[in-house]
Amino acid sequence: MTVLVTGGAGYIGSHAALALLDGGRDVVVLDNLTQGHRWAVPAGAAFVEGDCGDEDLVRRIIDEHDVTAIMHFAGSIIVPDSVIYPLEYYRNNTVNSRALLQAAVDSGIRHFIFSSTAGVYGEPNATPINEDFALKPISPYGTSKMMTEKMLADAAIAHDFNYVALRYFNVAGADPKGRAGQTSRKATHLIKIASQTATGVRPQMAIYGEDYQTPDGTCIRDYIHVSDLANAHVLALEYLERGGESDVMNCGYGRGFSVREVIGAVKKVSGVDFSVDLAERRPGDPQSLVAGADRIREKLGWVPVHDDLEVIVRHALDWEQSLKTREVNAA
Ligand SMILES: NC(=O)c1ccc[n+]([C@@H]2O[C@H](COP(=O)([O-])OP(=O)(O)OC[C@H]3O[C@@H](n4cnc5c(N)ncnc54)[C@H](O)[C@@H]3O)[C@@H](O)[C@H]2O)c1
Ligand SMILES: O=c1ccn([C@@H]2O[C@H](COP(=O)(O)OP(=O)(O)O[C@H]3O[C@H](CO)[C@H](O)[C@H](O)[C@H]3O)[C@@H](O)[C@H]2O)c(=O)[nH]1
Questions:
Q1: I need a surface site. Which of 64, 85, 145, 173 has the fewest CB within 10 A?
Q2: Going from the N-terminus, what domains does the chain have, and what CATH number goes with each?
């Protein structure tokens, strides 16, 4: 009765592994460490270094660890890179997911939870965004995730398993106990970048576009604390184990903050008035993405506990400080 967590050496997967272990479950992490770190895999989880697209390896792990469910976080995540290297994104996010799914079906896995994204909606012209909105991704990243959702839907009809695809909005923050956080080598996320600037890792940062049709001209996003998101995965697994129907669910709080509001929160919480430039719009940025967040609450009984931008920012800043100490100690 073990959960296989692909990508569990990365940001969200390591938090989900912690949440599973905290709940008394056994966990085996499969990660190829292209982005993740061995030290990020929580103590208490078994670890296998390898690729989630390696069907033989996955079948062996399922067999050896008595795996009954899979949480699939492994993937490539940088939207602009997906525009430059689309085939690489389809390979890692779609082709490797297909292989993982094949191994899961072959081995009789009954429950599957997939990391999808708000990126599958593209640029909807209404907000909040509900799960039944049309899927019109505007990047290869979003399309690669949408294709995996479609594979899951078809495979769950043909084979004996149920699944939940969780469509994350903007994930941020870190484990409140300081056990995990975002360590990505190539950070692009707003709260991570602002936290790095506040803690002196970066000299300054930029706002990408101030001419959007929003109250302060900057883009609006729905920021969800990574530990609330990790908990949603545990609840999704329990739901599937109860025999819940396969479904897709948005993961967000249903409330948006502008880029300026986020930077203001980081300055306030850190007490550092760092330098912020104004830059051109970043290509492909939708103006406003806010989750319609009722379904996950109703179906999973999910009740977020860190639904507060300043709490998210506090945890992100604490993690950034701890990374600096870790680097000093490692040097
Ligand atoms: N971070 C976000 O805001 C966000 C938003 C929406 C969706 N997601 C999705 O959530 C998942 C996790 O994202 P994250 O932010 O933790 O990213 P991350 O880069 O920190 O973690 C991904 C992990 O997967 C591993 N990996 C990549 N390809 C692999 C492969 N083929 N086989 C085995 N391991 C592999 C990497 O080494 C890394 O440890 C991704 O699928 C991503 O698309 C993230
Ligand atoms: O230095 C920065 C970084 C970001 N931004 C702005 O902050 C907002 C949020 O940007 P992020 O990069 O933090 O997040 P995205 O909304 O672009 O992307 C997130 O949501 C996507 C779905 O919409 C994908 O799931 C993706 O993986 C996930 O990071 C955007 O308006 C962006 O232009 C800045 O102004 N300056």
A1: 64
A2: 2-171+224-251 (3.40.50.720), 190-221+254-330 (3.90.25.10)
